[in-house]
Design brief:
- This protein is an alpha/beta fold.
- The protein is built from 13 helices and 21 strands.
- The longest helix has 25 residues.
- The chain is globular and about 70 Å long.
- Bound molecules: 1,4-dihydronicotinamide adenine dinucleotide.
- The site of 1,4-dihydronicotinamide adenine dinucleotide has 26 residues, from helix 6, strand 11 and strand 17.
C-alpha cells in the first residue's frame, strides 16, 4: 500500500479545489490534489462555463452574420456553418486551458492524484487510482471541493439521448430541430441561446412567473423580450408533469397556468438547478452534517462539523458560481495558514451570458423593498449611448440602486452586450463602499458602453446628461 503524509489533501480539482491547491502551495503547505476526471478544472472548465462560452461566442458570430451584418453593409453569400468544427474548437479551448492548469499544479509542486477519493477516517483519504495501486493520503486537514451535479426531475429522468443535462447539450452532434428546455435559469437560457442561434426551434418551460431567477425584475423582463425577438418561446408558470415518448420523440407535458400544454421536441434539456455532489465521499457513514439541501454546514473557517474537514464552493451555502468557489478556496487555505482570508458575500457578481448579457451585483429593487430599505435608483438606456449606437446594438440598460440616506451603491443590474465586463467596475466600487456620486464623478472614456454606467449613476440624483427626466 502506498502511503503519503501531507499538510493538506484537497478533493476536487474544479475552480475551488485547484485554486486552493495553488494558494496552499504558495503558502508553503505540502498539498495533494485528488480528482477523478482526466483533466483538471472541474465542471466549469470541462463541461460548464468555458465550453458554453466557446459555443456562445461561435453561435453569436453566426447570428451576427445572418441577422445583423447586412445593417453594416456587409453581405456574405453561401453562408454555412460546420457544427463539428465548432465543437472541435470548443474542445480545443477546454484542452488548452486544462493543460495550463496541469502545468500550474506541477510547477507549484502539488501532488496530483487521478482517482476517486474517500475519507475513510479523520485525516485519512484513500484514493483508488486508475490502473495503479490504491494510495492512502494522511493529512491533518482535508478540503472537500467536489462541486455539484445537475438535479434530475423524477418526471423527466436523464437518459443521455433525448432527455439530457447541459453536459450532453454542449456536444449535440446535430442541431436539434426542436429543443425543449426545462428551467429558465442561467444554464437553460445560455443553452437555449446557443441552439436557437444555430437554427433550432426552442421552447423554454419555466416554473416561476419570470425567467432568470434572482435577477432584477426589469432585467428579467427585458431579457425575455430580447430572447423572444430571437425566436425563443417561453411558457412561464408551467410545471412539467411528464415527458412522454411518442413515436420515439419526446413530448414535454406541463400544466401552464392551469391549462395542459404539450411541447414536441427532438431533445429535452433539463436545467432545473444543481445539487451538491459528495456521493461516496464518506463510505463509513461518517459524513459531516449537512443542511436540508445537502450542503455541508461550515463555520467561519469553512470547517465542517468534523474537525479537520473543510468544505467550499458548490458543496456549501451560497450561489453556485465558479468565482465564489475560487474565493472560498483561497480564503479557506489562507485561514489554515494563519492569514486573514475573507470573502465578501455581498459583492458577488452574477452573469447570464445570453445576448444581451444580464449581469448583476448586490441587491435588487425587490429585495430592497422586502428588507424595508430606502433606496434611490438610476437608470440609463443604451439607446442613448453613442458607442452602442455606433456598434449597432442598443439593447438594454443599466440600473443602479443606491442607499437613499448615504448614496452608497447597494446593487447594479446591467442588460447589454458585454454586461459581464461592465459589471466589474461596479463590483470594484461596491467592494470599496463607493457611492453613486463617486461613480458619477469618475471619468469614463468616450465613446464607451461604460458611459451608460456613469449616466445611470448621475440618474440616481436625477441629473443624467443624455436623457431627460420623465
Ligand atoms: P437555476 O437554479 O439557476 O435555474 C433553474 C430554473 O429551473 C429555475 O428558474 C426554476 O424555477 C426552474 N425549475 C425548477 N424546477 C422546474 C420544473 N419542474 N419545471 C420548470 N421549471 C423548473 O439552475 P441552472 O440554470 O440549472 O444552473 C445551476 C447552477 O449553476 C445555478 O446556481 C447557476 O447560477 C449556475 N450557473 C451559472 C452560470 C453563470 O454564471 N453564467 C452558468 C451556468 C450555471
Amino acid at each position: 500500500m502506498n502511503e503519503h503524509s501531507l499538510d493538506l489533501v484537497i478533493i476536487g480539482g474544479g475552480p475551488a479545489g485547484y485554486i486552493a491547491a495553488i494558494r496552499a502551495a504558495q503558502l508553503g503547505l505540502k498539498t495533494a490534489l485528488v480528482d477523478k476526471r482526466p483533466s483538471l478544472g472541474g465542471t466549469c472548465l470541462n463541461i460548464g462555463c468555458i465550453p458554453s462560452k466557446a459555443l456562445l461566442t461561435s453561435s453569436d458570430h453566426w447570428h451576427f452574420i445572418q441577422h445583423q451584418a447586412a445593417s453594416h453593409g456587409i453581405h456574405a453569400d453561401d453562408l454555412r456553418f460546420d457544427l463539428s468544427a465548432m465543437l472541435a474548437r470548443k474542445d480545443k479551448v477546454v484542452r488548452t486551458l486544462s493543460g495550463g492548469v496541469d502545468l500550474l499544479i506541477k510547477k507549484n509542486g502539488i501532488a496530483r492524484y487521478r482517482g476517486t477519493a474517500r475519507v475513510t477516517a479523520p485525516g485519512i483519504v484513500d484514493v483508488d487510482v486508475e490502473n495503479e495501486q490504491p494510495v492512502t493520503l494522511r493529512a491533518d486537514r482535508i478540503l472537500l471541493a467536489t462541486g455539484s451535479v445537475p438535479v434530475e426531475l423524477p418526471q423527466a429522468p436523464f437518459n443521455g439521448g433525448t432527455i439530457v443535462s447541459s453536459t450532453e447539450a454542449l456536444s449535440f452532434t446535430e442541431v436539434p430541430r426542436q429543443l425543449a428546455v426545462i428551467g429558465a435559469g442561467a444554464i437553460g437560457l445560455e443553452m437555449a441561446s446557443i441552439w436557437r442561434r444555430l437554427g433550432a426551434e426552442v421552447t423554454v418551460i419555466e416554473f416561476l412567473p419570470r425567467i432568470a431567477p434572482g435577477c432584477d425584475a426589469d432585467i428579467a423582463i427585458g431579457l425575455q423580450r430580447a430572447l423572444e425577438k430571437q425566436g425563443i418561446r417561453f411558457h412561464l408558470e408551467a410545471s412539467v408533469t411528464s415527458v412522454d415518448s411518442v413515436d420515439g420523440r419526446p413530448v414535454v407535458r406541463a400544466d401552464c397556468k392551469g391549462q395542459p400544454i404539450a411541447v414536441d421536441a427532438d431533445r429535452v434539456l433539463v436545467a432545473v438547478g444543481r445539487r451538491p455532489y459528495a456521493d461516496g465521499l464518506f463510505p463509513h457513514d461518517n459524513s459531516p452534517e449537512t443542511d436540508k439541501r445537502g450542503r455541508f454546514i461550515i463555520d467561519a473557517h469553512y470547517q465542517t462539523t468534523l474537525a479537520g474537514i473543510f468544505a467550499v464552493g458548490d458543496l456549501v451555502q451560497g450561489p453556485m458560481l465558479a468565482h465564489k468557489a475560487e474565493e472560498e478556496g483561497v480564503a479557506c487555505v489562507e485561514r489554515m495558514a494563519g492569514k486573514a482570508g475573507h470573502v465578501n458575500y455581498d459583492v458577488i457578481p452574477g452573469i447570464v451570458y445570453t445576448n444581451p448579457e444580464a449581469a448583476s451585483v448586490g441587491i435588487t429593487e425587490e429585495q430592497a423593498g422586502e428588507l424595508g430599505m430606502k433606496i434611490r435608483t438610476g437608470r440609463f438606456p443604451y439607446a442613448a449611448n453613442g458607442r452602442a449606437l455606433a456598434g449597432g446594438d442598443t439593447t438594454g440598460f443599466v440600473k443602479l440602486i443606491a442607499c437613499a440616506a448615504t448614496d452608497r451603491l447597494l446593487g447594479a443590474h446591467i442588460l447589454s452586450p458585454h454586461a459581464s465586463e461592465l459589471i466589474a467596475e461596479i463590483v470594484t466600487l461596491m467592494e470599496y463602499r463607493g457611492s453613486a456620486e463617486d461613480l458619477a464623478r469618475i471619468i469614463h472614456g468616450h465613446p464607451t458602453l461604460s458611459e451608460a454606467t456613469r449616466e445611470a449613476a448621475l440618474a440616481v440624483d436625477g441629473r443624467a446628461i443624455h436623457i431627460t427626466r420623465s
